[in-house]
Every structure is written in C-alpha cells, then in structure tokens.
Amino acid sequence: MQERNAMNSSSPLTLLVAADDPRDSASLTQMLRRLRPELRALSFTAVLGEGAPSLALVVEKSGPGFGRLCATVRSRFPGLPLVVIAPRFDGEAIAALAEVGPARLVPSPCEPAALMRAIDAHERRPHFEGRVSAIETSELLRLLAAAESSGVLHLRGCGGEGAIHIEAGQPVHAQVGERRGMEAVFELLRWGDASATWLPGHSAVARTIVGRVEGLLGVERSGSRRDLGAASRSVVDKIERLSRTDDILAAFLLRDGEIVTGGMEAGLDEALVSRALSRLAGVFFDMEELQGDFAGSDIQATVGEHRLVVDRLGPASLGFQVGVLVRQATPICKSLRRVLRQIDRSFRRALSDAEPSGGEAASIEAA
Fold first, then answer.
1. What digits encode the pLDDT tens for the residues 266-303?
2. Which one of 30, 110, 173, 200 is at 20 to 30 Å from 318 when CA atoms are compared?
3. How far apart are CA 285 and CA 192, in angstroms?
C-alpha cells in the first residue's frame, strides 16, 4: 500500500472524463476528487493542451447511439484504456463496445467502490483486456474461471456475434441471436472461427444461467465423449418444466456433480440448494465406487419437510444427473420417481437418435 501511494504522489494518474451531459461529468469529477484527491481529472471538451490522459471514464446512455461517445474518445486517443459507465449492458451495448475495442464495464448508478476498483485494476493491470483468436472459447472460459474474473466475453464469427457475461469466473448470462442462457453458451462453444473480445467489469444483467462453468463445459472422464446437442436441449427443457411443477422447489441438471442449469422457486438460497445437491451427488459417487452396480441410480435425503433427490440420467459414463428439492408429503412425491425415469428414457432416446448411422458416437470439442 505504501508503495502504491508513493507512486501516485510522484506521478498522479490523469483521468479523462467524457459525458454528453455536463452534470454527469461534474458529478463524476467531484466523486473522483473526494475518493482520490491526488488524481487529475480532465474534461473531454477541454483536454487539449492539458496533457495526455492515462485512462478515460466514459458515461454512456442506454438506447440508440450507445457507444458513440466511446468511439469518439477512441478516435481522439487511440489505445487509451476506457472505463464505460452505463445503466445497462445488453446485447446491443456489448456489441457496440466490442466494435470500439477493449473497455472495462461499471454499471450505473456508479458506486464509489466500483469506480475505485476499476481505477485500481487499471493501475495494477492484472487482467487480460483485448482481443484474442486461435484459442478455443472453452479454454478462455476455463482461464477466466481460474482467475475468478468478471466481465463479458464477446464473440464474433461466421455464425454472427454473441456474448457470455461472467461474475467471479462463473457464467451468469449468455446471448446469441434469440438464444439465451445455457443454450446460448452451447451455441457459442460450437463456433470454431470466433474472435473474442474481453470486456472486464460488471454488466449487472439478469441471471439466466444457474451452475458452474465446470458443469457447462463438462469434466473429462474415462470413455468417449458424445454429441449431446439435441439430447441436452431436450433434457434441459424437461428439467426446467419440472422446476415449475407445484411443490417442486428446485430442479437442476448436474454433470459430474456440478450444477449445469435448472430453475428454482423464488426466494430460495440458490447457492445453498446448489451446494446441497452437489454434495449429495458426491456421496452417490462415493457409494457407487464402493458398491459398484449394487449402488442403484439414485440417492435421497430427507431433512425436515424437504426431500432432496439426485438421480442418474443416461449412461453412467456421461456423468449426468438430475437433482430435485421437493416438499415432503405432497402429491408429487408419490410420482417423482416415475417422472424422473421418464426424463431418463427421453434422454436416452435422444442420445440414440443423435448417433451417426454407423452407430459410433460422434465426438465434440466441448459439451
């Protein structure tokens, strides 16, 4: 900390503040002076002759024309790092920023702590900010998960463009065309020619993905991988419908004990339910290793008025399971086993239909 303060006092950071509304510019400048008095804040309209800035803070308005001010700043100062402050970072906004070039995202109303994190991150420069090609999207997601990074990964290829929003290394939302959530992630993973732009920061979007990146990508296991495209879409749709059934509090698709996607009743603690189902899946794997074929296909636990069930989907080598949280002593409890077996049979049929005519399963890069 002393080292950083010494650096700042000898060479204070010069910031460029750009906003269409002069009141936004004045408010942001005042906030900066309160937070870090040693910072130099220059107005974009009066920057000429005031020295070269090292970072630009750009306030964008949502709607048509988003990104215009960023493009203007970028054309005046090529290569200048941008921090973009905006109410929403939807698909159109992300596409516009990806066109302008690398930028760090800060949602507005701009909190002082969020602004300082963006400035501190610029001074430390620990993160990748920019474009990349020739690296598989799945590998980029693994790297971002390992670094617990937050931001938006924008992809552009022959299939169009799309984006995966990430918080603390985990995907929370994705969009490509009309697809949203996990379906969009699977579509983007199939693109083999995409170039990527990483936009660090926080997009503050609505969550459409429940689960960890390890579950989305799949953990390597013994045996061949299979093309799960149509089959996975079929089972995801059924599990999401199951989650909306009366007295079903939560229903999730798991892979290798990791939550992939699903849905749950509003008001429940998502992290707690996900953790409980993942742990129950881990107990099943341990007992399966101990008992082999005698372990069956499911495991259940009853705690008070709730029952947790984790049941296998499809061949054991694929590692898929369905996890359910249900209220005890309700009508659905009596038919839950039958419902889960129906989902399993449907999944197996979809897998069989997806196999090549020769009977050999097709391999994929990331499922």
1. 788 887 888 899 889 888 888 877 776 666 788 999 98
2. 173
3. 34
Q: Which residues contact 256 (CB under 8 A, 6 or more apart)?
A: 214, 215, 218, 219, 221, 319
Q: Are 59 and 108 in contact (CB under 8 A)?
A: yes
Instruction: Give the tens place of pLDDT for each residue, 215-266.
Output: 677 533 333 344 455 556 778 788 888 888 888 999 988 887 878 778 888 7
Of 78, 66, 77, 88, whose CA–CA distance to 20 is shortest? 66
Q: For 45-79, how does the pLDDT look when each residue is reduced to its tens digit (9 = 90+)?
A: 765 555 678 889 999 998 889 999 999 998 988 88
Residues 6 or more apart whose Cβ sits within 8 Å of residue 361: 224, 225, 226, 227, 355
Share of the chain above pLDDT 90, in %: 19
Residues 18 and 58 in one domain: yes
Q: Give the dihedral sign, CA 21/26/31/35.
A: positive
Q: Is the pTM of this model over 0.70?
A: no
Instruction: Decide if 363 is inside a domain.
Output: no
- What CATH code is carried by the domain that includes residue 258? 3.30.450.30
Pairing, β 170-176 against β 179-180? antiparallel
Whether 218 maps to a domain, the answer reads no
Flag whether 217 is in a domain.
Answer: no
- Burial of residue 125 (CB within 10 Å: 0-12, 13-18, 19+) is exposed
| Structural domain harbouring 269 | 223-354
Core vs surface per residue 27-48: b (16+ CB within 10 A) or e = ebbebbeeebeebbbbebeebe
Q: Please check whether residue 76 lies inside any domain of the structure.
A: yes
Residue ending a domain, among 126, 152, 184, is 126
On whether both 289 and 191 belong to a single domain, the answer is no
How far is residue 266's CA from residue 252's CA, in Å, rounded to a whole number? 14
Question: Is 200:98 a contact under the CB 8 Å cutoff?
Answer: no
Domain end among 150, 176, 209:
209
